[in-house]
Amino acid sequence: MFKAEPMRRLVIAASKEQFEPVIREMYRHRVFDIEDFVEQDEEGYEGIKIGKPLEGVSETSGELIKLRSVISTFGINSEDFEAVPQSAKALYSRVESDLPAIEHEVEGLTGIRSGLETRLKEYEQKINIIEPFVALPLDLSLYSGYEHFTVFVGHIAEDIEIPFPCEKYFSDAVEGNLLVVVVGNSQSEDTERLLMDASFQSVPVPVEEGQPTGRLAYYRGEIEKVNVEIAETETRIASLKEKYATFLVACNELLTADVERAEAPLRFATTDETFVAEGWLPTDKVENLKEDLIRVTGGKIFVTEVEVDEVNDDVPVEYDNPDFAHPSELLMDIYARPKYNEFDPTILVSIVFPLFFGLILGDVGYGLILLLMSMGLRKYAKGDTASRLFDTLRNASISSIIFGFLNSEIIGFSLGYEPLLFSRHLSIGSNAGGAGPAAVEMLIISGWIGILHVTLGRGLHIRNILAQQSSGMHRSRAVFGQAGWLFVMWGILMMIWSMFPIQFMPDFTAMSVVAAGLNGAGVFGALMILLGVVGIGQENVLDLIEIPTIISHVLSYTRLVAVGLSSVAIAMVTNYISLELIIEPALENISIIGIFVVLAGIIVFLLGHTLNTALGLLGGGLHSIRLHYVEFFTKFYQGGGRKYNPFGMIKKFTEE
Amino acid sequence: MVAESISVEAATALAAGYKAIGAGLAVGLTGAGTGLAELGIGAAAVGATAENKDMFGLALLFTVIPETIVIFGLVIALLLLF
To answer: Where are the domains of chain A?
Structure first.
């Protein structure tokens, strides 16, 4: 809680004979995050090199590449399959016997398919070439094969006169017109020049025999035949996919694991006879792995713990949160994973994010829609990320429903009782003339939320400094700097309170004036600001230009009210237009046209609320998370921790 | 002269109208300002995210920073209206 999972650093050394059992055991446990060994020239590192992959890896990877090409031909995604573990032994024997045959068959079929596709393209090209010749009823063989004549065929804007003895055909039946000129070889150059001047564009002459229309019909028939053949091949590929898909994904898992294991020594340091593996694992997993490693090697292994330097070591980070906070880890990862030695605010986010969402979209109707949506989509969600996203949305919509009851709101209507907290009902339509929303009161409350959230953020920064740095001058100055921001903020508040009476806030205006028109509280506030500025400035003078952000960040929390009210306004306007302006007048004197008007009103109602649900989801979600990322996290959160990525695989389709 | 010719009701109605116009301007102009500011950031953010998916969080953060401007407009509008 509030900290990353505690990690230990382990160094494992053994002779190279133990590669196989050690790696296998490590892989099975899936707890050891290997730290890659980097070759160094420094003293003490002589003769220590990166290890070489285990034997047989190149064959296995070759096989894996072929297998993956088959999988991609089939378009198989392993996430689409239910986990049905098969025995690894049986799979290995099938890998030897069945896999090559399947690969061969698939290769054959894809070969046939690509051959057919090439033929299809050829025919299409031929059709393109023949098409202009349909304009003239000449046999295609007549266009070529002359010794003493030259044939010009092409498109031209309009018919032209050729002043030589020639045979000429012109047709405007095709796009761009078609001109055919046959002249004696002696006049061919002059004719060409003439034609060029008339912007003649020659077209290739097909090497064919017979009438163009006949040839076209022939090729079109051929294309149809090829298409049928392609469809047949596709069906055969699809049936193969159906038959072997589960086997292929299992093989993929098996061989991937083999390759990963075989390549593990590339991450170890080795000498001629021994190897050393260094890495991280959670504290509670250490003993178990140690025992098993010693057992599989028969004690011929040296395992020891190395002290962890939290600041300089690149410790991998694994979240350590209670169940309810797990979905929020997604929101953290989108920003950045916490560092190992800093405060992990996931739990705070998992509580405050839904609260903010509810404050913005506090409506029973929209909350229910989003709740049903998130729970429905959750069932179809594949993968960890999607399910966490929908869980986050579920929590947010539950909060939205609760706030909806407090606000007495259901898709813009009142639930029939006065709002328990503050009214968000606007004076629209039949609500006109009511009290209107308690906008000012809510803005003040949202300001309070901002003040507390920002104060908490600064407080956490101070906590991080105290936990991360050793005591001394540097640490004290950093703490004073952070406290400075708090002093300035609360000092400004004190001065405001001393001058203006504000609802829900302390009122110090009644105190007697002490100096410079300020009363006691005002002077105290001014002194706090002064002290705060000194605190900020002594840490970093440039930070002083950031002081206005103290005000803008707190005011930024007023979006909780502003965005919320705009969502209520859209809902109420939709209701007003669809019900009061369209449907109700139509129902008063019902007629045939009236029925259509009512239908139109229903469409407006549905469209408006669909749009508002989408806007509410975006507004509620984005603004809530933004308040965390920009206003809250910037106060203390560093992030940038390395994700804990243990060596091993979660097996879905195979078992040892 | 002009002041004499306006009744109290008309003046109240005028005031309400000006308030509404002011509120509209506050939201509209700040919205345009936010839009202008997000124009460049948004384009760059989408580009960065396309290059590297891990940028998404940071990109989103940068994109919504100018959002505060329109929120301030909205708050002013609310204060004007209620």
So the answer is: 129-217, 328-440+559-642, 442-556
